[in-house]
């Protein structure tokens, strides 16, 4: 369903530029548009996921660093993770997931009006990974940009897309979360290298007049904790030099225990807040799809909500922590396993570097 600002081929048509009107007329026009887009919400029309074929098991990790399968499984729940091939970039992973989501939605790719990529491991500093993906999909000149919110990136992207849909700018948006974390992992640091994996998940978001779709999304950030989970070098603050490389500052650093404590509290609080705000009880939630960092964080959330663990969708034992990609890959797998039924309320919760955290509730 093309919006007022989008023609049938998904090509952008700005009414303001075309009309070259006065500010007063523009104001009247935008009131007209907002009146006509009232009651629009966002539904997930299609989902897709891609994980590389190379499986790296805990037993293999035992040969790489001083760790054990027992330590990794009891402290995190992770048994194995996927690793992208050397010639596979984040945008390549994103492309597979995007194609799967577009096919699942059953739309013509030319209906897509905006491409968003949430990632903490972009192909390069710029151009954006979203532009690389747009080129691979052959969708120029559709706008495309990246979202940097680490593990909360998918929910930040969902909120951005939801706003563009609700204000009538776009009727179809492709949101992809993709990570090649293996490229920014220090494979000699046992405290981080056992945790992360590569993968991509995607959704096609569509304007709907039906009550089903996004119910609410909450986003939070606190930059005062930026040092406890980060990649210090490679940006303007610390360009890469031989000295930086020698100190491994181009890789992920995390104060695991500190992040763990903050993650437990922040995720529980933001989930309780969204449930209370929308007057939804935990028992009404059919499926919780949390960020997949650590089973202990997820079981603490289950305890606080008084929900059994089987209400949560978990796949971190197979993939580890895929940062922004964790939630949409889990969503695609939950759908494939017939865990989601029309009318179900699905709760999402994420936490990650920034610090950023977020929650969302949708009706499937
Ligand atoms: O996705 C973004 C958000 N990220 C998260 O939410 C991750 C949050 N953090 C965590 O999940 C946990 O803190 C970790 C899984 C990273 C670590 O678990 P922990 O129970 O907090 O362990 P710890 O860091 O306190 O380390 C306990 C011990 C230490 O040894 P000592 O000092 O007690 O002798 C570590 O050196 O475990 C040691 N250790 C390991 N031992 C074997 C750390 N990594 C390993 C390892 N294998 N891979």
Describe the structure.
With 364 residues, the chain is of the alpha/beta class. The chain has 2 domains: 41-210, Thiolase/Chalcone synthase (Peroxisomal Thiolase, Chain A, domain 1, 3-Layer(aba) Sandwich), CATH 3.40.47.10; 215-363, 3-Layer(aba) Sandwich (Peroxisomal Thiolase, Chain A, domain 1). Helices cover 36% and strands 22% of the residues. It is built from 13 helices and 13 strands. The strands form 4 sheets. Strands 1-7-6-4-5 form a 5-stranded mixed β-sheet, sandwiched between helices. Helix 5 (90-105) crosses helix 6 and helix 10 (256-277) packs parallel to helix 11. The longest helix has 22 residues, at 256-277. It is globular, with a radius of gyration of 21 Å. 47% of the residues are buried. Residues 67, 71, 75-76, 151, 190-191, 194, 256-257, 259-260, 263, 293-294, 297, 321, 351-352 line the site of oxa(dethia)-CoA.
CATH architecture of the largest domain: 3-Layer(aba) Sandwich
- Low-confidence stretches at least 5 residues in length (pLDDT < 50)? 1-21
The chain-level mean pLDDT equals 92
What percent of residues are in strands? 15-25%
Number of DSSP helical runs: 13
Order of helices and strands: HHEEHHEHEHEHEHEEEHEHEHHHEE
The total strand number stands at: 13
Write the layout of secondary structure elements.
Blueprint (H helix, E strand, L loop, with lengths): L14 H5 L3 H14 L4 E10 L3 E4 H7 L4 H8 L3 E4 L6 H16 L8 E5 L10 H9 L6 E4 L5 H14 L5 E9 L9 H4 L4 E11 L5 E8 L7 E2 L11 H5 L6 E2 L1 H22 L7 E6 L4 H11 L10 H4 L6 H11 L8 E8 L3 E8 L1
Parallel strand pairs: 4-5, 4-6, 11-12
Antiparallel strand pairs: 1-7, 2-3, 6-7, 8-13, 9-10, 12-13
The structure holds oxa(dethia)-CoA (UT7).
The site of oxa(dethia)-CoA (UT7) has 19 residues, from helix 4, helix 8, helix 10 and strand 12.
